[in-house]
């Protein structure tokens, strides 16, 4: 298995940045910088060997983006916080499950930007609070927990929080669930461009990129970015929250929303979403995901979480073992590390 330490270091230097290839409409969007790109891309030599050497697996380390245990959602937040500041709002309001990485990173980004942050988490309240909720509070966010896990209850509480902020004379900025939507996905599009630039600089040409997909913003943005960067690589989303029948149309709409920003039409037929690793439900671990997490930890010393990334890694492992995935395959480590410490027993109802 080839490893290219000097080339890898060069491809990961900020000099390999993508400023020149960012579409003009995205470059013109307000952006609040939260990190210096690129996130590292490197080979997983011992992991690939443990899978029998049928594929050369690389990893894109979005988990190493620098704030609050890292994660891909910092990409969306650069543009969402940029918009919030440009619109002269003074508070970010967003929502998600209690283990939401997006909520934790919104708290971190808001702290860095000097904006108040209100997080509305699905209930019922958990005592003591789990690690993400504790981090949310530590980062200074005001946490509101809905009485039940029903989406409608959480949405009603979001309305209530926004309403009371407005009545108190504040100007809240509503960040969509998962930071998804065209503005957030624009950040993910830069991640796709970045991978294309790194691959070019390393002289590798990935057959496939495998990533976890929940609200679909990452998948839509990265897909557009890869194509803009001239990489025809297959992008395989692994559904971790809702089944493909629900998520594919959402990703289709995100692709349409990105079109005016990039000038690029991506054929919806390119949306590749695998629903076979979801397990019983969002947030419920699977045995294949646990095995995947242990294999990566024990061969490379890298940790993945049971809610998002381990399920995607399990899909990658299944693909390599069956001989379906060959050549260079990139695992998109989207972050989520605090999820390792969440109590997920009975997660479906929370
Ligand atoms: C670690 C991690 N991976 C993947 C995802 C899925 O990203 P998206 O919601 O853009 O599909 C999330 C979303 O919160 C996440 O936190």
How are the secondary structure elements laid out?
Blueprint (H helix, E strand, L loop, with lengths): L4 H7 L12 H4 L13 E3 L1 H6 L4 E7 L11 H14 L4 E6 L4 H13 L2 E6 L9 H8 L3 E4 L5 H17 L4 E3 L7 H21 L5 E6 L3 H12 L5 E6 L4 H19 L9 E3 L12 H14 L8 H13 L5 E7 L17
Parallel strand pairs: 2-10, 3-4, 3-6, 4-5, 7-8, 7-10, 8-9
Antiparallel strand pairs: 1-2
The chain binds pyridoxal-5'-phosphate.
The site of pyridoxal-5'-phosphate has 20 residues, from helix 5, strand 7 and helix 9.
Structure description:
By secondary structure, the protein is an alpha/beta fold. It folds into 2 domains: 5-71 and 180-341, Rossmann fold (3-Layer(aba) Sandwich); 73-179, Rossmann fold (3-Layer(aba) Sandwich), CATH 3.40.50.1100. It is built from 12 helices and 10 strands. A 6-stranded mixed beta sheet has the order 1-2-10-7-8-9, sandwiched between helices. Helix 8 (182-202) crosses helix 9 (217-228). The longest helix has 21 residues, at 182-202. It is globular. The mean pLDDT is 95. The site of pyridoxal-5'-phosphate has 20 residues, from helix 5, strand 7 and helix 9.
